[in-house]
C-alpha cells in the first residue's frame, strides 16, 4: 500500500523560473519510488510545459505568482497550478492556433483543449497544449477572480 | 547548464550540453549554433548524453538550429538522448527529422 504525498510551492517570477519547479519535482520523485520512469517523465514534461507557458505568456509586466500543489497517490499524480497572470487568451494565442476571441474565453479554451493535433513538425512553437494533452489524462482550466486555475492528472500506467 | 563547443574540423562542431535544456537555457543553444554556422561550421552534432531534461523550448532551439544549419548547406544531428528526450521526440513525430546517433563524435562519420 502506497501512502499519498503532497508537495506545495509558491513560485514568484522573477526571480523564480521553471528550474524552481524542477527542484520541487526532485523531492516529489524521491518520495514516490512506485512511479515508473515513463510516468515520471510524462508528468514532469507536461507540468514544465504548462509552467513555461504560464511564465512566458501570463506575465503582463508585473511578474507572475504561482501556487503549485502536487499530490502523488497509489494510482495517479495530480497537479494544480494557480497563477495571477493575464487571462488565458494570451496563452491561447501563443499556441499559434486560430482562436475566436469574440466568444467566451472559457469556450474558446475548451475548443483548444479538446484539440490534440500537433502543429507541423518543423514548427518551432505552438505545441504546448497538444503536448500536455498527449502526456496526461486530464487537463482542465478555470479562471476565477483574476486567477487562472490549471489542473492536470496522469493515471499511473505501471 | 553548460555548453562546450569542440571543433572537429571539416566544418563540424560538436556541442556538448550538460543539465536541463528548457526555456531558461534554450536561447543559449540558439546562440551557440548561430555562432558555429557563422564560423563556417555548418554541420553541428549536439551531444545530449548529459542532458537530464528537455522541454519544448529546448526542442524549438534544436529545430531552429536544424533550420539554420540546413540553410547554410549543413545539418544538425543529435546524439545519445536519454529516455525523457526520446519520449518527447516520439510524441511529436520528430524522430524522423532529428535522428538520434549513438555518439556525437561519429554523427557525421560512418
UniProtKB/TrEMBL annotation, chain A:
It comes from the Bacteria. InterPro entries: HATPase_C_sf (IPR036890), HATPase_dom (IPR003594). This is ATP-binding protein. Keywords: ATP-binding, Kinase, Nucleotide-binding, Transferase. GO terms for molecular function: ATP binding; kinase activity. The keyword Kinase applies. Residues 15-148 form the Histidine kinase/HSP90-like ATPase domain. Pfam families: HATPase_c_2. The keyword Endoplasmic reticulum does not apply. The lineage of its organism: Bacteria, Bacillati, Actinomycetota, Actinomycetes, Micrococcales.
Automatic annotation (TrEMBL), chain B:
Residues 2-110 form the STAS domain. It comes from the Bacteria. It holds the Pfam family STAS. Gene3D superfamilies: STAS domain. GO terms for molecular function: anti-sigma factor antagonist activity. InterPro entries: Anti-sigma_ant (IPR003658), STAS_dom (IPR002645), STAS_dom_sf (IPR036513). CDD domains: STAS_anti-anti-sigma_factors. Belongs to the anti-sigma-factor antagonist family. This is Anti-sigma factor antagonist.
